Amino acid sequence: MKKFLVPIDFSDASINAAKYAVALTSQVSEAEITFYNVYSSISLPTLSSKEEGSREQISLNELNEIRTQIGEGRNISLAVEEGSFVDMLYEYVLGHGIEMVIMGITGSSRIRQVFMGTSTLNIIRKIDCPVMIIPAEAEFKGLKKVVFTSDFTDVARTTPFVTLKEIINTFKPSLEILNVDSEHFVELTPEYKIEKEAMEEKLGEYHPEFSFLRAYDFLEGISSFVESREMDAIITVPRKHSFLSQLFKTSHTKKLAYHSRVPIITLPA
């Protein structure tokens, strides 16, 4: 995993994500980072071709300024395109062999949370590579401990082990595997034990630690776990009704509290 794409719309959140990406990949051998901007394809009828060209140059100049400020000495390329953000991002990832997208997200208001959440989820669902979502206030302090959330349902078939291993091999964090369910009691059911054995068989080389947490509210459960264990990132496989979808739909601000600090890495199913 060496090619990283950082979408930048010049918001504080996207610039913070760029800082995070530069720090995160500093220890990755031969990492290639691209700062990427898409400007709107909607043009005024009076715009000349020269003025259209200047919009691209303005974006390039601003990206270059960001690169100068935070990426000195790094292998960072710049790319600017015109069009629909999600569509252009999808095509760029596909055409340039991007192995991870690192992007910011903000939530200064309820409306903005919904908008940004929808946009982010559309990107995650469309592109076929991991997406790392960086909270607006997150500061890189290392990626030493990550937690992979699993529903422990047919894990051998539904878990993208190859991609998960690539992330662990690239950044070399310790791995914890978490299942949050409202039905857990003192002892695991035979079904859960079988799924745990399948997970151990696939990931045994990383010596993961397993946790089975009983909680009636999934978001509060994982929030508590992340805080108490001082996790540096959450890894998940988004599916319909997954906690990532819930994250942007919940009306309870307190459930988003942990998200202000901990990045989320989504894996393509």
UniProtKB/TrEMBL annotation:
Q: Where is the UspA domain?
A: 1-135
The protein's matches in SUPFAM superfamilies, at most eight in alphabetical order, are given as: Adenine nucleotide alpha hydrolases-like
Pfam families, alphabetically?
Usp
PANTHER family xref list: STRESS RESPONSE PROTEIN NHAX, UNIVERSAL STRESS PROTEIN UP12
Family listed: Belongs to the universal stress protein A family.
- Under what name is this protein listed? Universal stress protein
